[in-house]
Design goal:
Order of helices and strands: EHEHEHEEHHEE
Distance between the termini: 22 Å
Structural class: alpha/beta
Strand content: 25-35%
Largest sheet: 5 strands, mixed
Helix content: 25-40%
Number of helices: 5
Shape: globular
């Protein structure tokens, strides 16, 4: 699964599927036999955390079980790191970094793309990068991010 991480906000009307069955039907409509690639623009927007994870779990299942290529845009870096095999970080339409989550999501890249001071550590559950934004009061004493 490839996730595109973009600093540019996307504003457009969105149809939100509230029930589990509605979301499965919505995602399933793009998973017809013969459809080798699914392109999804922020499929977790406006969903609470439990439903975001449910949608990403479903996409992971489609990717693994049916060997589908899934390309999606996410702005939640931590979820992107947990679910993606490959990340592309964009700023102003230009690729800033591309590769495995551990190669792309560094404190330097997050600051360059989002203008956000952070610390990146290994997620204790998955080992993937975990972004911890630095509160304004602590920015002068930022701790180094995890080694690359």
């Amino acid at each position: 699964m490839t996730v595109v991480v973009d600093a540019a906000p996307v504003v457009r009307p969105v149809a939100v599927a509230r029930s589990r069955q509605a979301r499965r039907a919505l995602l399933g409509s793009g998973a017809r036999p013969g459809t080798g690639v699914m392109l999804l623009d922020e499929p977790t927007t406006f969903l609470d955390l439990a439903h975001q994870v449910e949608v990403l779990d479903l996409l992971t299942e489609l990717n693994e079980r049916e060997r589908r290529t899934i390309v999606l845009v996410l702005h939640d870096l931590n979820l992107a790191c947990r679910y993606a095999h490959h990340l592309v970080a964009l700023k102003d339409g230009n690729i800033v970094a591309e590769g495995a989550p551990s190669q792309v999501v560094t404190a330097e890249t997050v600051e360059q793309v989002f203008g956000l001071a952070c610390r990146v550590i290994d997620d204790p559950m998955t080992g993937t990068p975990l972004v911890l934004p630095v509160p304004a009061g602590l920015r002068a004493s930022r701790a180094p991010s995890r080694p690359s």
